[in-house]
Specification:
Layout (H helix, E strand, L loop, with lengths): L19 E7 L2 E6 L4 E6 L14 E7 L6 E11 L4 E10 L7 E7 L15 E2 L5 E8 L6 E6 L3 E6 L4 E6 L13 E7 L1 E2 L8 E4 L3 E6 L5 E7 L17 E7 L6 E7 L2 E6 L4 E6 L13 E2 L2
Parallel strand pairs: 14-18
Antiparallel strand pairs: 1-2, 2-3, 3-4, 5-6, 6-7, 7-9, 8-9, 10-11, 11-12, 12-13, 15-16, 16-17, 17-18, 19-20, 20-21, 21-22
């Protein structure tokens, strides 16, 4: 019953066993998890995000089963960021060896900025022609245990523990991990910083250079940290119109009371407690869905 359809609120079609109970996507990839706790991925394999050697498999148009070494996948997420010259793609799974056993996180794919929780090292995994580092096999993220939720982007990732604390690792330009550090990247998972204490975190989402958290103990208030050049932090003050860097989680303007969030690139959307969807950040291609196109909406 560990990954059964009933436990995940999914009704499988008659005779279908196992069936898919979770899907996640980012960049040029999707991954799915089934009722037997297996993971399958498809799409690009430029960074080994299919858990296969990119030198022999550049992509797959059909799902490829990920070898988790016998471990059971309790949750998955996929992240990808791409610009005109390069991209970074990562997949992660919450895994355990048995029902009720310890839960760890295993990740695979790009590791140029320590996205896998490891120091970038071509001797572990490999590097492509552009010099970007990757690890094609699922690898345990050191220093993270008891994970209850994961959020993955192509550059940095975060985990919420069973005690509702949040840790992030990977790229940290502009404080995008919600952590004050001199390093542009840090593979070591570390707690995000909050402008007022350290409240329990129930939900976290990550964009290209920002992170947002939701805190039910504070009536589902949402806070964000990182780059704010296009209003990614949901702050409409004067500082929102420059290339502000903020490593502390600060509440978005509103207030916004949310049930769920999703970040993508330089934009974030939240499902509010009254069933509405509110979005903020970059809007050059209408990604906020507000009926108009503008450079950004800060609040």
């Amino acid at each position: 019953t560990l990954c059964s359809a009933a436990a995940n609120g999914v009704t499988c079609a008659s005779g279908v066993n196992p069936c898919i109970i979770q899907v996640a996507g980012g960049g040029q990839n999707f991954c799915a998890r089934d009722t037997s706790c297996n993971v399958y991925c498809w799409g690009s394999n430029m960074d080994g995000q299919l858990a296969a050697d990119p030198n022999s498999t550049s992509f797959s148009a059909v799902p490829v089963k990920v070898d988790l070494g016998g471990k059971l996948a309790l949750g998955i997420d996929v992240g990808g960021q791409r610009d005109l010259t390069a991209g970074e793609s990562v997949a992660c799974a919450r895994v355990t060896t048995a029902a009720g056993g310890p839960v760890a996180i295993e990740c695979w794919g790009a590791n140029e900025y320590g996205q896998l929780g490891l120091i970038r090292d071509a001797s572990v995994g490999g590097s492509d022609e552009a010099g970007a580092h990757y690890i094609a096999q699922p690898t345990v993220v050191p220093g993270v245990s008891g994970s209850a939720f994961i959020a993955v982007s192509g550059l940095h990732s975060c985990s919420i523990s069973s005690s509702f604390s949040v840790q992030c690792w990977g790229e940290n330009f502009n404080g995008s991990r919600g952590r004050d550090t001199d390093a542009s990247y840090d593979p070591n998972p570390g707690p995000v910083q909050f402008s007022a204490g350290i409240p329990p975190v129930d939900f976290v989402t990550v964009g290209i250079r920002h992170v947002c958290t939701m805190n039910k103990a504070a009536s589902d208030r949402i806070g964000c940290a990182g780059q704010n050049s296009v209003g990614q932090l949901g702050r409409g003050d004067a500082a929102a119109f420059d290339n502000q860097n903020d490593s502390d989680i600060v509440q978005v303007d509103g207030p916004i009371y949310g049930n769920a969030m999703a970040a993508n690139g330089n934009a974030t959307c939240a499902l509010t407690s009254v069933g509405a969807v509110l979005c903020w950040g970059e809007n050059g291609q209408g990604e906020l869905g507000i009926g108009s196109v503008s450079p950004f909406v800060a609040d």
